[in-house]
Design brief:
The chain is an alpha/beta fold. The protein is built from 19 helices and 14 strands.
Length: 459
């Protein structure tokens, strides 16, 4: 068998030269194969997205496979987090066992008979041997060359490592073996995965050859780094995909950001619709250098998407982030209040601190805004004059409120704008916020007068 390995390496260089270019593949098939040992990391989500985009771009097939053979570390919660995360991002898969009328993912734990069959083929070929109860795959002499679509051509020397264990003494199989078997069985033609898997790819190539199969097109994606240049770990801020849904990000914004995290449409485009991502995605756009994770940019992009929502959709999405036990909360009232802040927020989770004075009379005023207001000489008198004019408003609506403020300013020989800031701080405790008149209208006449009166007394 060693001689056949050498012939294969000499003829193909470990690349599978019979593989056709991407455009010539009759049906491109990609996959995402996570292990359910923790939450879905943004790096994994990006890998899934890139594979999904490549398949969708070429009208191919995207497969989801859960690599759950590590019983000691797998959890039901982690498995569900993967499925929920992909669905939240809008990443759907095309085939798998029927579950409730839909396609469930493949689970490696349900495929042992398949692995047994392929292991027997290795036995018959004489390329595995028993060693202390474990079975090892014999590496041939001679270099193995990996031709990667992103990382280029890389050579490996199999003799630098001991022969690889493929089956443990307890009969279970290691990752490298079942990974290759599943990719053969599922007809995967293009394999996009993290650059950290590149060092083991030569082992996979040897297994493909030993099993008489042509390797897929390999494309190893550079890793995601924190802004300080360190590798992003599961403990780092922004690493958990679930954290984005919990913090009030829109899935389409996160999907857009992840798409740009290591891939470029080759122009200055930053905001891309789902259709634009699918139509423009290609391996040639994936950067060869590591991607730097920028949570602030993701927040900014999310704010762009929030600003495009209808006021009704924004309010409905924001509603879940407002504490319904607050004294002034009612759903009808909240649905009117929340659109006032649509242009002010980048994520829904910013709303509670931004709107606290709209839902309770007990809130902490902004000390800087109060200090700025009190710098004005005679501010208490100005507020009392404003209050007296607002008190006689018959129909408490924005237009009438505006007329009352204008009248108060005229009586005190001021420009109307001079009373806007004191009115805002007295009514909300903030120096900034949404448009003043709609805010005052929704707070209601009685509450606005009471708050201005309290501010005047304190000053």
């Amino acid at each position: 068998m060693r001689a056949s390995y050498r012939r294969w390496l000499a003829n193909d260089g470990g690349l599978g030269k019979g593989l056709r270019p991407m455009a010539e593949h009759p049906k491109i098939r990609t996959r995402f194969a996570p292990s359910p040992t923790g939450y879905l990391h943004v790096g994994g989500a990006r890998t899934a997205l890139f594979n999904w985009l490549l398949a969708r771009h070429h009208g191919g097939t995207f497969v989801l496979r859960i690599e759950d053979t590590d019983e000691a570390r797998n959890t039901v919660e982690a498995r569900q987090a993967i499925l929920d995360g992909l669905r939240w991002l809008g990443i759907d898969w095309d085939e798998g066992p029927e579950v409730g009328g839909a396609h469930g993912p493949y689970f490696q734990s349900e495929r042992k008979d398949i692995y047994d069959h392929y292991f027997k083929r290795l036995e018959e070929a004489g390329v595995v041997y028993e060693d202390g109860g474990a079975w090892r795959f014999r590496f041939p002499a001679g270099e193995v060359v990996v031709e990667d679509q992103i990382c280029g051509t890389i050579s490996f020397d199999p003799t630098a490592e001991p022969d690889m264990t493929v089956r443990r003494p307890d009969g279970s199989y290691i990752f490298h073996f079942v990974n290759v078997v599943d990719d053969i069985e599922m007809g995967i033609t293009h394999l996009l995965r993290g650059e950290d898997h590149l060092a083991n790819t030569w082992k996979h190539i040897l297994l493909y050859q030993a099993l008489g199969s042509v390797p897929p097109v390999f494309a190893h994606i550079p890793l995601i780094l924190n802004e300080d240049g360190s590798k992003m770990s599961k403990r780092d801020t922004g690493a958990s995909l679930k954290g984005y849904s919990d913090s009030g990000f829109l899935p389409k914004a996160v999907k857009n950001y992840l798409c740009l995290l290591g891939w470029s449409p080759k122009d200055d485009s930053e905001k891309l619709s789902n259709d634009a991502m699918v139509s423009r995605f290609g391996l040639e756009g994936i950067n060869g250098s590591h991607a730097s994770f920028d949570l602030e940019k993701c927040r900014w992009l999310n704010g762009q998407y929030l600003a495009e929502l209808s006021p009704e959709d924004f309010a409905q999405g924001a509603l879940a982030f407002i504490d319904s036990s607050l004294p002034l909360f009612s759903q009808d009232y909240a649905l009117k209040v929340l659109p006032l802040y649509q242009s002010k927020v980048r994520t829904f989770c910013e709303l509670p601190a931004m709107t606290d004075y709209m839902f309770s009379d007990h809130y902490e005023p902004d000390a800087e805004a109060v200090a700025k207001m009190t710098e004005r000489e005679g501010i208490a008198g100005l507020l009392e004059g404003l209050r007296s004019h607002l008190a006689v408003v018959k129909a408490w609506q924005a237009e009438a409120i505006n007329e009352a403020i204008a009248a108060a300013a005229e009586k005190q020989k001021l420009k109307q704008g001079a009373l806007m800031f004191p009115a805002r701080v007295a009514a909300s405790g903030r120096g900034g916020g949404p448009e003043l008149l709609p805010m005052l209208e929704l707070l209601g006449q009685e509450r606005v007068l009471a708050r201005i009166g309290t501010a005047s007394e304190l000053l």
